Amino acid sequence: MEGKVFLEHRLGEILDSLGISFVRQSSSGTSLSSLGAYLTIIKLKDEATYWHCVRVALCGVKVAEALNLDFKALFYAGLMHADIHGYYLLKGVYDFSAEIILRHRRYYSDGCPQNLPHSRVRYSEEAKKLIDRYARILAIIDFYEINKEDWHAGKNT
């Protein structure tokens, strides 16, 4: 449990630094932001997936900082990469991160998902190369985290 408390704390620090809140205040009261609602649903539906996404996002921040890349792109992509709904939530707001989510799946042998949506943004060739670089990094982090989790759970004996 101690590890989860640390992860939640670190997640909160990064969200605060980005000016993002899980809750939204309005004249009609308090509600969850779309990011907060998505993560809450993931956590309630499958807590292991939630913690996996948090670890991938936080690891993405560290890798981005080490490689002098934009940490926000890997943070959002890592946090929302669990399913295609994360792509749709980011699309139109954080298009670059949404594109990373789509493209990181191309590095998996199962090719999941088979029919990826087409990008709504026309990127330059330079931007496409950068997105592919981030997508490869996300795929490596995702693969590492999945296999580390399996190993700790005794699945890779």
Structural class: mainly alpha
Global morphology:
globular
Q: Biggest sheet: strands, sense, closure?
A: 2 strands, antiparallel
Spatial strand arrangement across the major sheet: 1-2
Q: Please, how many helices?
A: 7
State the helicity in percent bands. Answer: 55-70%
The pLDDT mean sits at 82
What is the tally of beta strands? Answer: 2
Note the gap between the termini: 24 Å
Spans of 5+ residues with little confidence (pLDDT < 50)? none
Helix-strand pattern: HEEHHHHHH
- Rounded to the nearest angstrom, the radius of gyration is 16 Å
Portion of residues in beta strands equals 5-15%
Sequence-ordered SSE layout with sheet pairings:
Layout: H1 2-17, E1 23-26, E2 29-32, H2 34-45, H3 47-66, H4 71-80, H5 84-90, H6 95-104, H7 125-152
Antiparallel strand pairs: 1-2
Describe the structure.
The longest helix is centred in the last third of the chain and has 28 residues, at 125-152. The chain has a domain at 47-152. Helix 1 packs across helix 3, helix 2 (34-45) crosses helix 3 (47-66) and helix 4 packs across helix 6. A hairpin with a 2-residue loop joins strand 1 (23-26) and strand 2 (29-32). It is globular, with a radius of gyration of 16 Å. The mean pLDDT is 82. It is built from 7 helices and 2 strands; from the N terminus they run H-E-E-H-H-H-H-H-H. With 157 residues, the protein is mainly α. It starts with a helix and ends in a 5-residue tail after the last helix. Helix content is 66%, strand content 5%. The protein has a two-stranded antiparallel sheet with strand order 1-2.
